[in-house]
Design brief:
five-stranded antiparallel β-sheet; eight-stranded mixed β-sheet; 13 strands; 18 helices; globular; Glucose Oxidase, domain 1
Amino acid sequence: MNSVLPKNCKPWVEAGPGKYHYIWYVNQCASIELHKRMGFSFNIIFSVIRNNYFRYGYDEKDMFRFGNIIKKKESKDPEFTQKTINKWKPLEKEFYELCNKIDQTNIKKISDKEFASLYKIFRNTYITEYSIPMMADTMGHFLEVDIEKKLINFLKKKNKEKEYNKIINLLSKPVTTSFLGDEKYELFLIVKDYLEGKDIKKNIKEHSKKWHWIQNNYVRIIILDKKYFFFRVKEHSKNKKEVLNYINNYHSELEKCKKEKEHLMKELEFNKELRLLIKLTEEYTDWQDQRKKANLIAHYYIGLFLKEASKRTKINLQSLEYTTGFELEKILEGKKVNIKEIKQRQKLTGVIFTPKKGNILNFEKAQQLEKEIDSFNKEDIFGDLRGNIANLGKATGKVKIIKSHEDFHKMNKGDILVTSMTRPEFVPVMKKAAAIVTDEGGITCHAAIISRELGIPCIIGTKAATRILKDNDIIEVNANHGTVKKIK
């Protein structure tokens, strides 16, 4: 069979647990919708899903083309990114207003016609909100590669290349709050009240309503209740010092980091291009965090629509979770769709999106796409695995490959967490890890942020750690040099 991906395509792949209906929004928004609104996007987006586990990606050349377009726009207009974010903000507001409206609607009692209309409004509003911030994810990857190349060359001229790891570790730290940091801060304020003997029932109820969605992902919706948050309050209350330290330093540490970065850039006399790259990293990191927040919240509502649609149409939920957004609309309007084909997608789904259209592949072509993604990079790796340093340090331990929550039981204290990429629900197992190694992720990804917070070594972007390493391999993670060495 001929290759499914274009000739000379070098896939840049992300992976994680996922079902197609949730992934469809990513495909649609990163290609067709982004191009519609910004005039540029990826030439090709591809996804493969097997056993509720997805691989999603694009051509690496596309990523560099995309990144250089934005760099050029920023060079001409230093406010380009901020203006784009300001353009998006009303769309974000409209999305959250619609979410509030849905909360106030008893979707079980509205008519089929009203329900179909409400879903269509939600889908279109979410797509409109979600599409422009897809720039942030791409820029995160592009900036990681571009900064490394430019910074190493810059430091060589200063005879400071040996200090690269230390310098990049500081430059990649966030200088703005994150939704995970905000949730923790607000929870710790409740813990403080609990330690002082105050009644926290109302605060727990409000916290649960505001943050119930933080462990959602592309495969399952978890509605965190008051019991969950009260359990966390009680657990954190055992370490009063940590709680008070976080409350007192959460915002001041970000300001301190901002000043340290500026001092470093001034001391090393950073050139205009490097300063631009650092500025863009900070802007797109913050924007990506806002995008992720809306994304996780949207998944909660997508889950509500899918469950109610299943009850109304008598089509099982598993099948609806593999529809596209447009197919679900047709089903709700009583129009015919190929349910047999949709059911087959549960075994294997393969899709190719361009700026003009999306194409769901037949089973044979989906298998071919899966082979092409799997074969890439693996044969090129010999000896030590290498990646980007997210947090300095060194650790040795047993490998545990964690692909989703279903693997969490494998993780023991002191193991090395090896995964494609971490997400908010991974935090409990991350706390057990002696070190973290990921296939994907940029210097401002979730794994990078949490590893710094936990103070454990972390190497990201190895591309193939989950395919090269196996459970119970003994490895040395040297996050001072960005290497992963298999001992036995």
